[in-house]
Amino acid sequence: MTVKRVTARLATAATAVVVGGGLGAFALTPAGAGAAVRTAPVATTVVTRAAASSCATGKYQKQVETYLKKLGGYGTITVDGKQSKADCAAIVKFQKRFGIQPAAGLAGPTTFDVAKRLASTKTSACKANKKGITFCIDLTHQTTWVMKDAKVYVKPTVTRTGMKGYRTPAGTFKINKRTKKEWSDPYHVWLPYWQRFIGGRGFHQTTTYIHDKWRGSHGCVNLLPQDAKQYYGIGKIGSVVKVFGRRPGT
Question: The L,D-TPase catalytic domain covers which part of the protein (predicted)?
Answer without folding.
Answer: 133-244
